[in-house]
Design brief:
With 495 residues, this protein is an alpha+beta fold. The protein has helices spanning 8-15, 20-29, 34-39, 42-52, 69-82, 100-119, 149-160, 165-183, 191-228, 235-240, 243-262, 269-303, 311-317, 347-353, 358-373, 415-423, 439-455, 460-474, 478-482, and strands at residues 126-130, 140-144, 333-334, 355-356, 378-382, 385-389, 403-405, 411-413, 493-494.
Length: 495
C-alpha cells in the first residue's frame, strides 16, 4: 500500500481514511504497522465499532430502570451476577472499549453467531412437564426442543445477548434478500435446487427472528425476576421501590411473549415487538405525568397554589379521576363486564383504556397520590379483592383506619366494610387480612391473575402464553430458563 511510503504524521491521516477491512489487511500483512494500527488507532477502531454495532451492548435499552438511578443499576448488576443472569446490562451500562481488541472480539463473536444461526434447527418433539400449581391440578405437558446439540447452540446465542443483536438483524436482512431473489427467478432448469435454497433461506430468516425474540424475552424476564426477588433487598429497600416499576416490567415481559405468539408467521414480528416494548414505559409515564398535572391544577384552583396539599383533599379530588359508571370512558373504572380479560392486568392497557381490575386500579391510584402529595399508600390484599389503605397515626386503633375501594369509584371504606367484603366470599375474617402486602406480593398476584386469565382458554395461543408465565415463576436458573416452555427455540405447543 502507498501508506508505507509516507511519513508517520501523514500515515496517521491516511489511516483514518481506510475502511476497517483495509486496516485489518494492513495489520495482518505488514509487521511494521501492526503496533501502529493496534495501539495508535483506538479512536478509529472505536468509530468503526459504533458504525458496525449501533445496537450493541450498552446501547439498546433492553433494560431501563427509569426511577432507580445509579444505585438501582448497581444493585441490579450485583443481583444478575449472583443469580447467573449477567448477560443483559441495564441502559447506562458502560463497557471499556479497547479499540482493535474489542473490534476483533466482536468480529469473532459475529462469525460464531452466523455459524450457529445456519445450523440451528427447530424441533418440537420433546415434552416438558410443568408441575401442578396446587394439589389436584393436572400436570401440564408442553412440547419444546429435543435434547440435542441445538440446546447448546441456543444457549450460546442467548448468552451472547445484546452482543449479537446487530449481527442477527443484518443476517435476517441478507437472507430475506436472498430468499426474495428466488421469487423472481425464471430459470426453471434449476427449480429444484432453487427450491432447496429458498427453503434454507426461509429457515435462516425464521431462526434469526426467533433468536431476537428469545433475547428480548430473556432480557425482560431478567428484569422482572429482579423485581420479584426480595431476598437480596432489605425491608427499607423494598419499601422504597416504586409500585409501578414492577407493573411496567410485567407489561413489557407480557408484550415479548404475546407479540411472538401473534407473529408466528410474520418476519417483521420482532421488529414490531421492539417498537412496542420501548413505547410501553414512555406511554405509561407520559399518562401519569398528564394526570398528575391535571389533579394538581384542580387542587390549585380549589385550594390555592400549594405544594403540600392535605392527603384527604387529594383523596377527594381523586373521585374526579375514578368513577363507578363503566360507560364513563373519561374515568378509571372497574371492568366487571369482562373481568377476566388479560388486558385488565396490564398497567399500560389500563392506563390506555381507563378500566381494569382492583389490583391494577390500586397501582394507578397509589402512584398518582404519591406523585401529587408524596403520601405512600398501602395495598391491602383481601381474599378476592384489593383496596387501598390510607395512612394512620401510630396510636390510632387499627379498626378506625380508612380504606379506598378503587374498583367502585374510589369510595371510602371502614374496617367493618372490609369484613363485609370478605364475608361475601364465605371466608372467616381475621385481622391479618387488613395488613398491607409488599410490592413483590402485588406483582406476583398480577402474574397469577394473568395466568388465571389464559388458563380459562384452550386455544394454542393462550396455552403458550400460559407456559411462559408459569416458567417465569417456577424456573430460577438461567440455562433452565433458556430451554423452558415459552423460552426455548421452538415456541411451545400444547399436546
Amino acid at each position: 500500500m502507498i501508506v508505507l511510503l509516507l511519513s508517520p504524521d501523514i500515515q496517521q491521516i491516511m489511516l483514518s481514511y481506510l475502511c476497517w477491512e483495509d486496516l485489518l489487511q494492513l495489520r495482518t500483512t505488514n509487521s511494521h504497522y501492526r503496533d501502529v494500527i493496534t495501539n495508535d488507532c483506538q479512536e478509529l477502531w472505536n468509530g468503526y465499532i459504533a458504525l458496525r454495532w449501533p445496537n450493541g451492548k450498552g446501547k439498546t435499552p433492553l433494560l431501563h430502570h427509569h426511577h432507580g438511578g445509579k444505585q438501582s443499576n448497581i444493585d441490579f448488576i450485583n443481583w444478575s451476577a449472583t443469580n447467573n443472569w449477567n448477560i443483559h446490562p441495564p441502559q447506562n451500562y458502560s463497557t471499556v472499549v479497547l479499540g482493535f481488541q474489542e473490534f476483533h472480539r466482536r468480529s469473532l463473536s459475529d462469525h460464531r453467531t452466523v455459524e450457529l444461526l445456519g445450523t440451528l434447527t427447530v424441533d418440537c418433539t420433546s415434552v416438558h412437564h410443568l408441575p401442578p400449581r396446587f394439589p389436584g391440578e393436572e400436570m401440564v405437558q408442553i412440547r419444546g426442543m429435543t435434547e440435542s446439540e441445538d440446546n447448546s447452540n441456543w444457549i450460546s446465542l442467548m448468552k451472547s445477548g445484546e452482543d449479537c443483536i446487530d449481527c442477527v438483524k443484518k443476517y435476517i436482512i441478507r437472507k430475506k434478500k436472498y430468499r426474495t431473489s428466488f421469487l423472481f427467478s425464471n430459470d426453471f432448469l434449476l427449480l429444484e435446487e432453487a427450491s432447496r435454497d429458498y427453503r434454507y433461506a426461509e429457515k435462516c430468516v425464521q431462526n434469526g427472528v426467533k433468536v431476537l425474540g428469545g433475547i428480548w424475552r430473556l432480557a425482560f424476564c431478567q428484569q422482572l425476576r429482579y423485581h420479584l426477588d426480595s431476598t437480596m433487598k432489605s425491608e427499607e429497600e423494598q419499601q422504597q421501590s416504586l409500585i409501578e416499576t414492577g407493573a411496567i416490567s410485567i407489561a413489557k415481559f407480557y408484550a415479548t411473549i404475546s407479540c411472538s405468539v401473534d407473529d408466528d408467521d410474520d418476519d417483521d414480528g420482532e421488529k414490531d415487538m421492539e417498537k412496542l416494548i420501548h413505547g410501553i414505559e414512555e406511554n405509561v409515564e407520559s399518562q401519569f405525568l398528564e394526570l398528575t398535572n391535571i389533579i394538581k391544577l384542580r387542587l390549585g384552583n380549589r385550594l390555592g397554589q400549594n405544594k403540600n396539599y392535605p392527603l384527604m383533599e387529594v383523596i377527594e379530588e381523586m373521585r374526579s379521576i375514578f368513577g363507578e359508571d363503566e360507560e364513563d370512558e373519561d374515568k378509571f373504572r372497574g371492568n366487571s363486564a369482562n373481568y377476566y380479560d388479560a388486558k385488565n392486568s396490564l398497567l399500560d392497557e389500563v392506563m390506555l383504556r381507563r378500566k381494569g381490575i382492583p389490583i391494577t386500579l390500586a397501582i394507578v391510584y397509589a402512584t398518582l397520590v404519591r406523585r401529587v402529595c408524596g403520601a405512600c399508600l398501602d395495598i391491602i390484599g383481601l381474599p378476592g379483592h384489593i383496596v387501598i389503605g390510607l395512612p394512620f397515626k401510630a396510636r390510632t386503633p387499627y379498626f378506625e383506619r380508612k380504606f379506598v375501594d378503587v374498583f367502585h369509584g374510589g369510595r371510602l371504606l371502614s374496617y367493618s366494610d372490609l369484613r363485609s367484603i370478605v364475608s361475601r366470599y364465605g371466608i372467616a375474617w381475621c385481622d391479618e387480612m387488613a395488613e398491607p402486602i409488599s410490592h413483590q406480593q402485588v406483582w406476583l398476584r398480577m402474574l397469577r391473575n394473568l395466568t388465571n386469565c389464559h388458563s380459562r382458554h384452550v386455544q394454542s395461543k393462550d396455552l403458550r402464553i400460559l407456559a411462559a408465565l408459569q416458567s417465569v415463576v417456577r424456573v430460577g436458573n438461567f440455562e433452565q430458563m433458556v430451554l423452558a416452555p415459552g423460552f426455548a427455540a421452538c415456541d411451545p405447543r400444547v399436546i
